[in-house]
Specification:
The protein has helices at 32-42, 57-68, 84-93, 114-125, 169-178, 186-192, 212-224, and strands at 3-8, 47-52, 75-79, 101-106, 130-136, 142-145, 148-152, 159-161, 165-168, 197-201. The chain is an alpha/beta fold. The protein has a single domain (3-224), classed as Spore Coat Polysaccharide Biosynthesis Protein SpsA, Chain A (Alpha-Beta Complex). Strands 1, 2, 3, 4, 5, 8, 9 and 10 form an eight-stranded mixed sheet that branches. The two termini are 29 Å apart. The structure holds cytidine-5'-monophosphate (C5P). It catalyses: 4-CDP-2-C-methyl-D-erythritol 2-phosphate = 2-C-methyl-D-erythritol 2,4-cyclic diphosphate + CMP; 2-C-methyl-D-erythritol 4-phosphate + CTP + H(+) = 4-CDP-2-C-methyl-D-erythritol + diphosphate.
Length: 227
């Protein structure tokens, strides 16, 4: 396939407090990772690299087999690193063949609809070096220094970034090879390497499961959704 999707699922889940790696926590009868993979395999065909904590590689392979409907030929599982950036780098090294577009996706955004993947790929096909899904910022945002409000920030200039974040493979590989700092997302790393990244509409369901309240929200959404 010409699209590769790196699903990063190697986080520790400390903030979720479920006592184990977040991606393997159940939302309903299926784990966060399984739900994320259901979205990935409902998107246009792609090579899929799943990045997991050391020791969970076999579990991830099992989840991937089920989610992919036995397309294990499309799936690679690798061990992640200490930071998200290291985990993405490990995933990129595992891509093979003729992949031209790489999407990096947080497993923690488990309910991301397939259409978001298509939008990101579409923007790159239309000529962008990189494209990310964003949502408008709802809160009023302040710049602060300790307890002092330094400035109001014009909300209309802001957006919150989601995943999957997509890039031309050559651009992303080069940006990772050149990266000399830690960035909080791939778009920042690619922008630091001098490339323009464009925005496509994100989706409320692409929220990141971080806290116990987020997990509750995902549970309620799935319980309310028709099978
Ligand atoms: O911690 P946070 O939820 O922001 O992480 C975002 C995504 O990055 C998660 O899907 C998590 O599993 C992944 N991650 C990773 N390796 C790390 C840290 C986070 O794959 N060392």
């Amino acid at each position: 396939p010409r699209v590769g999707i790196v699903v990063v699922a190697a986080g520790s889940g400390t903030r979720l407090g479920a006592g184990g790696p977040k991606a393997f926590v159940g939302i309903d009868r299926h784990s966060i990772l399984r739900h994320a993979l259901d979205g990935v395999f409902a998107a246009p065909e792609a090579q899929v690299v799943i990045v997991v904590p050391e020791g969970r590689e076999g579990d991830a392979r099992t989840e991937a087999l089920e989610a992919s409907g036995d397309r294990s030929d499309l799936v690679t599982v690798v061990t992640g690193g200490a930071t998200r950036q290291e985990s993405v780098a490990a995933g990129l090294r595992a891509l093979w063949g003729d992949v031209e577009i790489v999407l990096v996706h947080d497993a923690a955004r488990a309910l991301t609809p397939p259409e978001v993947f298509s939008r990101v790929v579409g923007a790159i096909d239309a000529g962008a070096d990189g494209a990310i899904p964003v949502l408008p910022v709802i809160d009023t945002i302040k710049r602060v220094a300790g307890e002092e409000i330094v400035a109001a920030v014009d909300r209309s200039e802001l957006a919150s970034a989601q995943t999957p974040q997509g890039f031309r493979r050559d651009v992303l590989d080069a940006a990772y090879a050149a990266a000399s700092a830690e960035f909080t997302d791939d778009a920042a790393l690619v922008a630091d390497a001098g490339h323009a990244v464009s925005a496509v509409p994100g989706h409320p369901l692409a929220f990141k499961i971080t806290t116990a309240a987020d997990l509750d929200r995902a549970r309620h959404l799935l319980a309310a959704a028709p099978e």
